[in-house]
Automatic annotation (TrEMBL):
A Pfam family annotated for this UniProt entry: Hemerythrin
Keyword entries, A-Z: Iron, Metal-binding
Name by which UniProt lists this protein: Bacteriohemerythrin
Family designation: Belongs to the hemerythrin family.
TM annotation in the entry: none
Lineage: Bacteria, Pseudomonadati, Pseudomonadota, Betaproteobacteria, Rhodocyclales
Residue span, Hemerythrin-like domain: 18-119
């Protein structure tokens, strides 16, 4: 797999915490891709934990901002978590490479997901912040 580099011109969504989470996703995906058999389980577990926390935060933002299409966005997250959990199960049964094999498709998924669903969420959050008193804006940190 080619390395997934953070490119602000392509990836930045003008949402600091979301952009930070996306950078971490790319970093952890690269670590998994470069892992050897000995480190693959640990690397996949780190990526899975990151995704669960990252997606939970985005789903909170979706609820708070009232974005249309939140169900589809959440299902997209659930699909990735399910793939990661399945690969982790395979690895624990001794199927080395199960996590590394996902990294190419995770990179493709990220490119599409972040430029569509996450971009819409970032825009919705910006609009929501403009219409709410400062004390009612959802925490994004």
């Amino acid at each position: 797999m080619s390395k997934l580099d953070w490119n602000p011109a392509l990836h930045a969504l003008a949402s600091g915490p979301m952009d930070d989470a996306h950078q971490e996703f790319l970093t952890l995906t690269n670590i998994l891709a470069a892992s050897d058999d000995e480190d693959e389980i640990r690397s996949l577990q780190q990526l899975l934990a990151h995704c669960e926390a990252h997606f939970a935060q985005e789903e909170f933002w979706m609820r708070e901002s009232g974005i249309v299409g939140a169900e589809n966005h959440q299902r997209d997250h659930e699909g990735v978590v399910s793939l990661l959990q399945s690969a982790l199960s395979d690895l624990k049964r001794g199927q080395h490479g199960a996590g590394r094999e996902l990294t190419e498709s995770l990179g493709d998924w990220f490119q599409h997901h972040s430029s569509t669903m996450d971009a819409a969420l970032a825009f919705q959050m910006q609009q929501f912040a403009r219409t709410q008193p400062p004390e009612s804006i959802p925490s994004i940190g």
